[in-house]
Write a structure and sequence with these properties.
Elements lengths: L15 E8 L3 H12 L4 E5 L5 H5 L31 H15 L3 E3 L3 E6 L6 E5 L4 E8 L6 E2 L12 E4 L13 E5 L3 H12 L4 E4 L9 E2 L2 E2 H7 L29 H6 L3 E3 L2 E5 L2 E4 L3 H26 L17 H4 L4 E3 H4 L1 E6 L3 E2 L18 E2 L2 E2 L4 E3 L13 H23 L3 H9 L7
Parallel strand pairs: 1-2, 1-6, 2-3, 6-21, 8-17, 9-10, 9-17, 10-13
Antiparallel strand pairs: 4-5, 5-6, 7-18, 11-12, 14-15, 15-16, 19-20
Length: 441
């Protein structure tokens, strides 16, 4: 959807009315609904498809959560699986549906919001939806960070090769026969490349800048270490680009080690740079990217060791975790160019992330490029809020537990604004009570 500006509504329309409309029925929208419900604030949650739709139809078959069930959940509800297990795709869907039922979320599925228009002369908004207009005092855009798959556009569409985004990948059997170039070494790219390698595919993995935390260290999962070290609560630094992390919960969780993937037969290449006459070219940065990932990994081990020593904890030592394997030949003599036909590559899979799409919102809530204008989720347009954005308030904001805390902050803010709006001075109330009505004149 192309972002565009909306003028204030100057027409009369019969609309259903409520206090808050939450747009999006995923983890962000449901978390918002729980907190609004606890504050007795009337609201609706509008979801254009089904609850947890992206988990249902835009994730691959073998995907599991990147964090253990004891951690990656809503604080108010546990998973049915073991606490240290990693919930699978279907378990995540069931969990979110059960959560919606548990909190009694007023979710309407199959309803798409196409436009939000400020009403002239009032603090309210009119939402145009596929099911008719709805009026609201507040609007929460809780559509999350996975709105629009992004591609670099390097390889022409008519290049004679299958290209798909990671959101479209399901399993190796659905891809054309042949080798696969996976572009992107975050969690999605690393896991999909591993999935393909296990299926016997010849895999090339384009490794860009990344973080690489240990899955576990000294008896604790990395999510625990990030918690006690205060890293989940780190706030975004203006002007600083945050790199993706490579982590996996597959097979009970293991540290992503690109050199060991290469030892199993995967070919690592540098950042995908350009396209020329049937060949993909790569930047000469593979060794540098791996070294930076190693530094991130070892740095967390150092901080964990310091924490154990400072707090006098009796955690088992794990010196073998500091072993970094030697660089494989694909790193010491990296490919700078790959002729796709000669290499038998039939598919390029772009694990290159997502962009935002708030074109339905408009107004002062977004800038000319369609990016949200906000502070801690409170937008520049009074009455409009954002929820579920990466680094919205902290590093953990886009995760299921992080969005729950951000939702509480926004719900509390809405409650305060409602109280201010409802306030009337005592003398004004007395005056209104004694003012003759029009009918008595």
């Amino acid at each position: 959807m192309t972002p565009h500006r909306h003028s204030k509504a100057k027409f009369r329309v019969t609309a259903e009315e409520t206090e808050v409309v939450v747009v999006g029925g995923g983890q962000a929208g449901l978390a918002m609904s729980e907190h609004l419900g606890q504050l007795d604030i009337p609201h609706l949650v509008l979801e254009r498809n089904r609850i947890a739709e992206r988990w249902r139809t835009e994730r691959w078959d073998s995907l599991v959560a990147n964090g253990p069930a004891w951690h990656d959940r809503f604080p108010s509800m546990e998973f049915s699986c073991a606490p240290d297990a990693f919930a699978g795709r279907d378990e995540m869907v069931d969990y979110l549906v059960a959560y919606a039922n548990k909190i009694g979320a007023p979710v309407r599925t199959g309803v798409e919001v196409t436009r939000v228009v400020p009403r002239t002369g009032t603090p309210r908004f009119l939402l145009e939806t596929s099911a008719g207009p709805i009026g609201a005092q507040y609007v929460v855009a809780a559509t999350g960070p996975f709105q629009r798959p992004t591609y670099p556009g390097l390889v022409p569409a008519d290049a004679g090769i299958t290209q798909l985004h990671s959101s479209m990948y399901r399993n190796p059997q659905e891809l054309p026969t042949g080798a696969v170039l996976v572009v992107g070494a975050g969690s999605s790219g690393a896991q999909i490349a591993d999935d393909l390698l296990r299926a016997g595919r010849n895999v090339y993995l384009s490794v860009g800048a990344h973080g690489r935390p240990p899955r576990r260290y000294r008896g604790r999962d990395f999510v625990w270490w990030l918690g006690v070290l205060g890293k989940w609560d780190l706030e975004a630094t203006p002007g600083v680009t945050h790199v993706t992390i490579a982590v996996s919960g597959v097979d009970g969780g293991c540290t992503v080690d690109f050199r060991r993937l290469a030892a199993r037969g995967m070919t690592l290449v540098g950042t995908t740079d350009s396209w020329h006459e049937g060949s993909v070219r790569f930047a000469p940065d593979l060794a540098r990217n791996l070294a930076a990932g190693d530094a991130d990994y070892l740095g967390l081990l150092d901080e964990a060791d310091a924490y154990v020593a400072t707090h006098g904890l009796d955690f088992p030592e794990e010196p073998e975790a500091r072993t970094i394997d030697a660089d494989p030949p694909c790193v010491t003599r990296p490919l700078r160019e790959l002729d796709l036909k000669a290499a038998g590559v039939s598919t390029i899979l772009w694990a290159t992330g997502y962009g935002l799409d708030f074109g339905w919102l408009g107004g002062r809530a977004i800038d000319a490029g369609g990016n949200p204008l906000h502070r801690r989720g409170i937008s520049a347009e009074p009455g409009v809020y954002f929820l579920g954005l990466p680094w919205q308030t902290r590093r953990g904001s886009a995760f299921i537990w992080g969005v729950w805390y951000d939702a509480k902050y926004l719900a509390d803010h809405i409650a305060k604004q409602r109280a201010y709006t409802a306030y009337r001075p005592a003398d004004a109330i007395t005056e209104a009570a004694h003012r003759p009505s029009r009918r008595s004149k």
